[in-house]
User: What shape does this take?
Amino acid sequence: MGGGFPNTELRTVSDKRVFDYVDFITLDDGEAPLLNLLEFVSGKRQIENLKRTFCLQNNQIIYIDNSETKDFSQNELPVPDYSDLNLKNYLSVIEMANPMHSLWSNGRWNKLTIAHGCYWAKCTFCDVSLDYIKRYDQTAAPLICDRMQLLIDQTGENGFHFVDEAAPPGLLRDLAIEILKRKMNVVWWTNIRFEKSFTRDLCRLLKASGCIAMSGGLEVASDRLLKLIDKGVTVEQVTKVCRNFSDAGILVHSYLMYGYPTQTKQEPVDSLEMVRQLFESGVIQSGFWHRFAMTAHSPVGMNPEFYKTKLISAAHPTFANNDVEYEEINAADHSVFSEGLRKSLYNYMRGVGFDLPLQKWFDEKIPSTKIDPDYILRFIEEPEIPVFRPTARIIYTGIKPTAKSVTSKSKKQQTELTFISNSGIEKILIEENYGNWLMNYFDHFLISAPHVLTMSKFKEDFEKVFPGDFDLFWISKSAARLREIGLLVL
Ligand code: SF4
Assistant: This one.
């Protein structure tokens, strides 16, 4: 037995009766422990050389982890083999009200991870002390595409669910570029942390590569508690990232949480108001409220006093040990929020109920919100300030434009660039000398270009021809239009 349940719940198992039903329990990544077990049962390995394995010996549970065998890195792992599973025999019949949950359950998605663990690994409610979160190891983008292709060939399905804990933005960027380079016709979705690297341009690139949905945690939707959770994001940042995804046409699902230790009676109301505004403004389309649960392997579970909580029972259970019973010191009663949060969210996801006062969703009296009615809108309307990063990549994902010389009303010679894309035809007028140079240079921007083009290289090449002009050009209306149309800085 291995996988999610043993990895979180059975790490301290001491009830021998489990071994009436299974012979071995392995922890964490399964490949190396299973290979060792196979060698053991075929007589090629001594029992004391097993890896991360519980078993019963002389009527005692023993844990063996003294093998020299190394774990496999992400780059060494093979793809799952579906060749003898007849996927066509399975129907999709579960109907779900929540858009993201129905994405999870409907249809068939090839499952892959692009990285092991979480590159952040800090959130205080999460199992950050366990291998499946804390050990971060990413796969190279070309290898992920090779695996995707193998799975498409095997299953005939081109939809992918990357089941990462929190897919890293840099690797997603490289993966999207690789998918576009190979002209793979795929759709995919994954789980992320709403961090600021998900700029407008990155979201557009991800969309172009087939990304259809993203899920991530806004959690408690409160800056005070997000800090206590060590999520590394603020409500403002989450809002802007969600706006970037939604503007790019990517569905956003948000995990929401209430009942985090120290949460006051006021805070869930303010969180709900922010969530209401996020849905009303259309930057989030799907969500789910979870009640906080303390786990033994999370920073809160390992240091409960710091979070003003007290464990109810210190004794170690003999079987499953993950969810920890606790009580809060001077706590608000979080249970009064459960039903109202659920009901309101259900309605917001359907685009209704935005005008109802928050109190209407609750049977008990709740405090009035202290959040301004345009709190979220202010963040949404704040434009992204382009920052010049010398190492940023510059890419155009469409096809090369055509150019012709035109004379403006003021008798100035200009270059008209015509871009053709799925969304139609776009034209840009640009000063003739810049326009001609850009047309000759355009192949460097294309996804098929053999070399990576960075902003510093682009600037250097530009200034060889127009010394000192780059900054002026880069803030010009023509350059802004070019970026609007799809010249991405990543
Ligand atoms: S909650 Fe998500 S982002 Fe935070 S540590 Fe866990 S996996 Fe990483």
About this structure: Residues 118, 120-123, 126, 128, 133, 165-166, 193, 217 surround iron/sulfur cluster (CB under 6 Å). The chain has a mean pLDDT of 93. The chain has three domains: 4-64, 74-82+96-381, 394-489. The domain at 74-82+96-381 is CATH 3.80.30.20 (pyruvate-formate lyase- activating enzyme).
